[in-house]
Specification:
Strand order of the largest sheet: 3-2-1-4-5-6-7
CATH superfamily of the largest domain: Glycogen Phosphorylase B
Shape: globular
Number of helices: 12
Radius of gyration: 21 Å
Distance between the termini: 9 Å
Oligomer: single chain
Largest sheet: 7 strands, parallel
Number of domains: 2
């Protein structure tokens, strides 16, 4: 049986959307005729470890994470340092046909120690590429960008979760070609509906609460309108600022904290609209999760989100950082419930056609087969 080494500095349930993707992809590919070793991390502070997949061998190094969702500078540095010897040992001991690095920084930096010159591929996430998301990993990028470019150019193939991400990576890293493989989401039980709701519009935002996600625009917009409600699901450094904004207006705005992904699929169908005016996402897996549950979606015309939302078909793309535009699109959906129903049904159809897990699982399986 052919063997592959999968290197990811964090693995579900640690991390966010990219880790949901890697877990789901390996869970299905692991059922096929490929033996897989996973080199990843576990969190010393919380004791959280990777969710194991039957038939796949996990090697975990201890790191100190910032929290469950964010690895942090110290955690990333610890993974890079503590994974060197396990990586060298595994690659010298085993006859791997391929190494798959999930994220350029810090995972793929280990390719510098690929002494047997085993073919490798890299899947970029977004912020792991220098300059993609301002304020993220800036010190690590400053130190490691020359090595990042070297290992990226040495990869047999590189992949991005959106055309936007792939194009950016090509230009920033000097790559000839970066192939797009969209992430997916689990199917929900949402069905095409014919019922037009007249109840007050219910919006939900699911996100890490960091500045570039621009959840503040959603909170301020809902408060400006007043007769709609918003639930914010997530944690992060912007939480208190968002609560202060929420207290400035008349709208019902609730902060629900962190919600496990399994519970999220139970909550999402109770809302009408998903909103996240993020300006720094390479894909935005949470949009596809909302679409699978039959929600109209509102994002910003930035990053990979423009490939998930078809403007005025299954949602709206507001101009980046434009509060008035966000207010305008919410009002449109509140005032035109026939349009809302149409967008909700289109979300389900678009999800089923483009964003189930079938696509990425088959795409990565074909990649693996090409090196066996």
């Amino acid at each position: 049986m052919s063997k592959i080494l999968f290197v990811a500095y964090e693995f579900f349930p640690l991390g966010a959307g990219a880790e949901i993707a890697s877990h789901r992809i390996l869970k299905e590919i692991g059922k096929k005729d490929i033996e897989i070793d996973v080199l990843t991390s576990w969190d010393l502070k919380s004791g959280l470890r990777s969710e194991k997949i039957p038939g796949i061998n996990f090697i975990e190094v201890p790191i100190l994470r910032k929290d469950k969702i964010n690895t942090g500078f110290i955690g990333m540095l610890m993974f890079l340092v503590l994974s060197i010897f396990p990586f060298i040992y595994l690659t010298l001991k085993n006859r791997y046909s391929l190494i798959h690095f999930w994220a350029l920084l810090p995972s793929a930096i280990l390719a510098f120690f690929n002494f047997k010159r085993i073919p490798y591929v890299i899947t970029f996430g977004g912020a792991d590429v220098p300059g993609f998301a301002k304020g993220q990993f800036e010190l690590l990028h400053f130190i490691l960008t020359p090595i990042s470019k070297m290992v990226a150019r040495g990869a047999k193939q590189c992949f991005g979760p959106s055309n936007f991400s792939s194009s950016y990576s090509e230009k920033k890293l000097g790559l000839r070609k970066c192939i797009t493989i969209y992430n997916g989401a689990d199917r929900s039980n949402a069905k095409i509906s014919t019922a037009v709701t007249t109840k007050p519009l219910r919006l939900v935002s699911v996100s890490r609460l960091v500045e570039w996600k621009r959840v503040d625009l959603a909170v301020q917009a809902v408060n400006s309108i007043g007769n709609v409600s918003l639930d914010v699901i997530g944690v992060g450094p912007e939480l208190q600022k968002l609560k202060d904004y929420a207290n400035d207006g008349p709208a019902e705005i609730n902060f629900l904290g962190f919600v496990e992904n399994s519970e999220l699929y139970k909550l999402l169908p109770t809302y009408d609209v998903f909103i996240l005016p993020t300006i720094g996402d390479s894909f935005g897996i949470v949009f596809t999760e909302a679409m699978s549950c039959g929600l109209a979606v509102i994002g910003a015309r930035a990053g990979g989100v423009t490939e998930v939302i078809d403007h005025e078909v299954n949602g709206f793309l507001a101009e980046p950082n434009d509060l008035n535009d966000v207010i305008s699109v919410i009002k449109k959906l509140d005032e035109d419930r026939e349009m809302l129903l149409k967008l909700q049904n289109n979300s389900i159809e678009r999800f089923n056609k483009r964003f189930t897990w079938d696509g990425p699982i088959e795409s990565y399986y074909k990649v693996y087969q090409g090196y066996l």
